[in-house]
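From the pipeline queue, job 12 of 40. The input is one protein chain; the requested action is below.

Action: predict structure.
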Amino acid sequence: MDKKRLADGFRGQIMHVLPRPLLADASRHVLAGELYPTDIGWFPRARGHFRERPDGADQHILIYCTSGGGWFEIEGRRGELGPRQTLLIPKGRSHAYGASEKDPWSIHWVHFTGEDAAYLGGMLGPGEFILPVAMGVENRLAALFRECCESFSGGVTHNRILFAAQTLRHLLAVLFFDNPAFTPGVSQGSHRNFDASIEHMKRRLSAKLTLGELACHSGLSIARYSLLFRAQTGHSPIEHFIRLRIQAACRLLDTTDLTCKESHPPLAMMIPIIFSRRFRKVIGQSPREYRRTAKG
């Protein structure tokens, strides 16, 4: 049984507990069965907010703190949650959480379930429950939470649940895969944002970059830079740089009649046959085949 210290709710709160019979129908739908919300809400300045579930919940719980702060305890591990942080509590885990007494949190929250939900719930490392949210991402998350909540303002229907399921999928995609502050498989202590490094590469497509220069620009040793960059992008720094060049070559092939060499000499710094081989490896076609392919 949930325990709540404040019985009367919070001024301005929004909360939707979706009818279980409708959820049962939605769970069998191809567009919702793998990932769908069961409860969702917004608690502003939630002084006195407290929940305790010794046996865990039947769904995964995501809490996004926009201001103020609070605390959590999951299977004996205690931590704090502050602005631009999300807390993910996997289903079935014993937990409790509550707002700070001095500066209570304002939170968007959602309970969700489905096969894809289980996968996302396992993306954090062992004993990790917090996902930081990068600047520039927080407004997108808040907007998607609001859109999901507002979808039920006119009543809960089958179509509204399907809409909310797709909105929730977008929200979680932003949080897990388009959030520079988080990278799957990389612990928070090891995470680095390589957006600036990639922008440096894009500005220097006309130059011959070295691994040492890229590492120096990021303020890391070559070994550390290479290790973290590969962990967070799936490619080595130089391979990523080459792929950016090939991406630029594709744009030229799409929009001009010039060859890569004629229009952008740095793209042809490699021996042409080597460049063609790498182009085919990345794109799946030779530059000539790519140009001839109908697009759009």
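Job complete. The radius of gyration is 24 Å.
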